[in-house]
Records
---
Amino acid sequence: MTFRPARLMSSPGSSPDGGLSRSSSPTGGAVLPCGSPTDIRWRYVQPRARTPWHSDRMDDMPVLDPLGTLRAAGDPGTDVYLTGTVFLDIIFTGLDSAPVRGTESWARGMGSSPGGIANMATALARLGLRTTLAAAFGDDVYGDYCWDSLSSGEGIDLEPSRRIPGWHSPVTVSMAYEGERTMVSHGHEAPPAQESVPACPPPARAAVASLGHHGRAGDQERDQEWIGAAAASGTKVFADVGWDETGRWDPADLDGLRHCAAFLPNAEEAMRYTRTACPREAARSLAERVPLAVVTLGSEGAFAVDSGSGETAEVPALIVEALDPTGAGDVFVAGFVTGTLAAWPLADRLAFASLCAALSVQEFGGSLSAPGWAEIAAWWQQTKARARAAAGPGPCDPASPLGRYAFLDALLPTDPRPWPLRRAVPTVGFRPA
């Protein structure tokens, strides 16, 4: 996807600091953005509590279950299992430039939301997948906020997660400016994995694992153990990777790929691990180690190689006005996992993942910016209306957004029922009125 620095947009219900207000409405609803990537409009959404995916209150479920036609008796209760570190993200936006040493900079926008592995967990849950997260949570106020946001707000199953007495929740401050971001993080020594997450993952259709270099001795071995156990039980493992701060980029750090169904690095990561100069060449090299290699290309889109079938696919980026790119990569992975579990064609999976990421960067926060089906449907309806008004009757160009995303017509409800998505707000939490 291509990110452009966003113009700070004002609207009824937006707060002076650029965050979203609690709304001027006496009913306490929220004013949320919707529309095409380049033309954000606003709609009022009546508040309504959401319940976990295992609830019997079907009226509070997401508007679309992408696996609805595939579910059968005896299937795992979990669609996707994740484990990792949850951060409290504090995001500053509306900075005209990078902060200058010795000066104070004021940001026009600010938001707070759960981050780290919570970015991907929230994105998966909002796409209708039954998501289980195993993570350590501090017993401080930050931990309370993150736990409540994920469990009560998003319906994510936290049963295998643990509250760690006396542990300080990790915090990341992200500053978005000039179309990019800079982050500063702080955290105490994380509890040992055996104290914070279960050794054996629960049965699941899929799992998302992070490979690469790990700072603490033994962590990489433990990760390999649970990834291998998950794959052996029939779970489809999707892997991503983080930046190697050591600069080694040792291909041996990717040994876990032998258990994985897919690997989704960005272009820089892929080229460094494969010692190649071209991201497409890197994807082909990685496909020798994993059945499906997907490399995100930034402003050029995404490229994938299926080593089993020999198929390759590439989709261009969507050009959007970006407010905060935090977590866009996680949202891309969530969209791709959704399409894969739903057995969509490879090119459609890439396009859908790119769309989800593009919609997410128009909001504050890595996790709470993830789109749901209602927002995807709104984008598609407006995209069709705008394209047809410009082109008139007749067949559309298959390479245009109208042609590339035509598969959404058979997927999306014609009259989607909206539900309120929680959004990042300037404070960690408001006291009950």
---
Amino acid sequence: MIVYEFKVKGKVEQYRKVDEAIRTFQFVRNKSIRFWVDNRGVKLSELSKLSAVLAKEFEFANKLNSQARQAATERASFAIQRFYDNCKSNKPGDALSPSHLRRETRLQCSPKNLGRLNKNEYPRGSSTYQNQPALPSGRCANIQRVPDYEADQQNTSLADSGGDNATTTPTDQQDVRASVFQGEACPNFSRVRPRKKGFPQFQKNNRSVEYKQTGWKLSDDRKYINFIDKCGIGKLKLIGTYDLHYYQVDQIKRVRIVRRSDGYYVQFCIQADRNVDTQPTGKTIGLDVGLSAFYTDSQGNKVENPRHLRKSEKALKRLQKRVSRKKKGSNNRKRAVKKLGRKHLKVSRQRKDHAVKQALCVVKSNDFVAFEKLQVRNMVKNHRLAKSINDAGWSQFTQWLEYFGKVYGRVVVSVPPQYTSQNCSDCGEVVEKSLSVRTHICKCGCVLDRDHNAAINILSKALKQSEYQLSTVGHTETNAWGETDLYLIWGNSVRQVDSLNQESHGFLSK
């Protein structure tokens, strides 16, 4: 599947119609989530029928193309299926911050939510609501939470007698909250974070509407697109350099209108394979990504880390101040928010452009590329390095490496990152060192830059891993151009590593 994106040019009234279509698309998607929540156990195939029901019930929903409404229900189905898959695989979610945890605890342990034992909820401004005990920040991790599908079985009454007629006093409520703080599972508190495993959420600010193969029509010169449903968007001019004449209209499976800070865009999802024939170079490379340098390869070459966010922080801070000084709901605030959004969009585009160019250069220049598969999601929990890690864009870079590897027929292998920096690339001895130590010095005489040593270890690991996969019957994922070529490259890589180690020995003797 190939995605081509064009910027569109239209009138103000057309943009207003696009915004209405986006809100309708969001409405159908949220209604599908609500239908699934209220009818737990319903088949996901039933959600597609809901779009026709909503079209009959709501006039504005009927204006949207029928297949666009089906695409909205499909988005809801994907979110629900992802939640089911996360539950089956016991995938953990993001941890709550202490402030959010205190807020949700207060809401869930209110008189209304404590098993709905007391239907007369105390007003939020009353002393009973305000005098609820605060959650100690140091004990947040001890609170037990139960997934929503398990909480349904545990949702029993807290009172001895049970039933809706039972009541609880403020003292009882404080005891229940105290038991929650001590780590005991409260039936309704277990519902505080059902989205920990990716529970489907209601969208508040959707930015796109998606059509399938109906509801739109391309002009003969492929420079205009006309949306012909009842939303009244009309004809929009396409601004871009891609040539749609190369593909048939039947190959365009989806058309998506996206709203961004700098305007509106149309994306075409084309069913086609992209393959580029290239000549083998006979080179291999191992990459170690980092913060001081964007990456260091197994030859010792470094690519500078551009630090796009750090360079734009001063401008972002100034624009954010302008937003905070404007009155909420005013047109001046909306304009300030747009300027801030355009600046953030520029930073994200700079990061993507750098990742694409570096990945393309690496894949074109080498037949075998190895990188370490980092768990960035866990690494950003270190709040001293989280901003720099996110700014580097390691995950985006590795994703483009794998994509270009498939396009250009290169072998791209990921290896686990354990001990790539600690092991000596010459003798294999473990040399423990902290992050502040940037030079690898081993007893065997190997002296290398820390990242250079890690890149050599990554390449060695990947070659051994690929050799094992080639010897496995029926495994042909990494064998892009034959076993003989890969073994030849493996021998060349070993000789390269040996030569680098000899140079490091000579440097140490001097």
---
Amino acid sequence: MSKKNKSIKLSIDQLDPSAPPEHESTKTGHTFFQRDFGLLDYINDVIFIIDEAGHFKFINKVSEERTGIPTDALIGLSYLDLMEPRYHDFARNSFETAIKGEAGPAFEMEWLAGSGETITVEVNWTTLYDGGNAVGVLGALRDVTERKNAQEALGKARDELEMRVKERTEDLQEANDLLKEQINERIRAEEKLRESEQKYRGLFENSADAIFIVDIETGIILNANQQAAQLTGHPHQKLVGMHQSRLHPGERAEYYKDKFQELIKNQLSFDLEAEVAKKDGTIIPVFISSGLVTLQRKKVVQEIFRDISKEKMIADLKGELETKKLVNRAKAIIAKHYRINDSDAMRMLQKESRRQSRKLKEVARAVISSKFILE
């Protein structure tokens, strides 16, 4: 039981003695209200007693402080006189429930205090008995404005939180949708890339690599297969007798001579990405796998040239795809940050790329990693 209810219970016990004097009426209850209720003046809430007809018979001194109305002016008035009409029906039903001896719920209402401000009060009341007969109602009125404001503030905070959660959920849903679209786009791009790779693998697996047999001492090509002729554009008879360094662009001839001598000196095999200069001047990227082998009891160098033009192309496509994704992500970040469209965001990226003399992909990656936001 709360402290307030204990106070009300104490007052009721003192007001409803178990053996009332014989000269007091046990039927009408009129002499009941002639008792001294001064003890109720020491309760901090507004305490009042109402008879069966709903008229005030007692109001403690606290009420005068809260309402600014002398207590004597309230005696005899109906409890409805102190309420706004909008509360009458509920208050009347609650009072009638209490006067019948049944427990009624507390209710809240707005009230004009003596200070002139509108406050929220909570009204509780319970039946008063005299000799077993209900003679009135003991009520308590408490200022719950702070509690009400706290509840409203809590409700407002809850509503704001729910709104933020909803907004955040919508943002996440939008981001999720965008991510799904990016994933789908990536899947489509990877499928196209896969198709290209599969097509390339099929073509490659059905063709032979270019193979050159080179003299270990002179570097002169001793033999070459048909695929070598096709790769270089030189006929087989032209390739035989040619120095192996001439297979590559002229400006890189010395580099390939040194690599060949390194192979001979260390008696090791090596793999190398290189370029082949075709007869018509076209540069072909190749992967070279070289090693020492013995043919007809003679040690020679076997060089297997694999055309990796398509692989290079695929790698370039992957790089372009990666760059495009980075740029798109960076554009989205900049557009959201500055509330601009994609075109303006792209121009900002390009401008920053030129200013820093850095690749667009590098600037985009810096934006994504939050190292800086373009000014």
